[in-house]
Amino acid sequence: MSTASASSAFTTASTRVPERARRAGWLALGLWLAAGAPAPAELVVLTGGEVLKVSGYEVTGERVRLALATGGELVLPLLRVERIVEDEIVDETPVPEPVAESPFTLGFIPGQAFAVPRFAAEIAAAAARHDLNPRLLAAVVSAESAFDPRAVSRKGARGLMQLMPATAARFGVAARELFEPERNLEAGARYLRWLIDRYDGALHLALAAYNAGEGTVDRYRGVPPYRETRRYVLRIYELFGVTPAPR
Fold first, then answer.
1. 243: which strand partners?
2. In terms of Cα–Cα distance, which of 163, 159, 172 is closest to 118?
3. For residue 70, what are the contacts with CB-CB under 8 A and spacing of at least 6?
4. Shortest CA distance to 155 belongs to which of 56, 224, 245?
């Protein structure tokens, strides 16, 4: 990927979700359920490894309200939630590993040029500390938050690298620090490096785990067949400048 194409690729829509929109979404879900229509299911992965199937959820501050697929509701601290992923199997075909259009490395390269709209120095510093290619780290930031340090997803993920508070805590960053760019990048870069090492440099598995959690990747023994996760992996390939291997 050239510098010019990288600059244009690193421009996406913000993921910030207003409180009014979140509440409207919960109300719409309630009306859908009351009408007897099937709601899209999602899986809530807790920090202890337990998995709950839900028909909806609402994050309010540091708590999450879950509408259980079996009926009833459950309110939990957001710190208990490791991931919320779509329970939508769309394709069992394995997602291929990436093939570089030109040689690339996952590790840090001093002085490597990369074009981003914001936080270039902070991304480069975090990449250097955790031996990551800064273009890869920038690609994740672009896909996750479009470089908005105040971004908040409907699932409760926060900041530049869209970290759940529970994930950030695993890597030494408190929930209250997730809107600080340097601290968010620190936790996210540590997590990404940990995943790359865990999967022996298999980028497609590390990216899938960043999106859906390592437990999900392990359960499927590869990229899980979820539309969201598969699109995410391919999006990072595009931003990073690699293509899937031919099938």
1. 99
2. 159
3. 53
4. 56
pTM metric for this prediction: 0.78
Which of the following is catalytic: 42, 58, 122, 144? 144
Half-sphere exposure at residue 197, Cβ-oriented, CA atoms within 13 angstroms? 9
pLDDT in tens, the chain (247 residues): 333 334 444 543 333 444 444 443 443 334 333 333 334 578 898 988 888 999 999 999 899 999 998 899 999 999 999 989 877 666 666 666 776 544 568 999 888 888 899 999 999 999 999 999 999 999 999 999 999 999 999 999 999 999 999 999 999 999 999 999 999 999 999 999 999 999 999 999 999 999 999 988 998 899 988 888 989 999 999 999 888 766 6
Q: Among this protein's residues, is 144 annotated catalytic?
A: yes
Tell me which residue of 142, 181, 195 sits closest to 15, measured CA to CA.
Answer: 142
Amino acid code (one letter) for 164: M
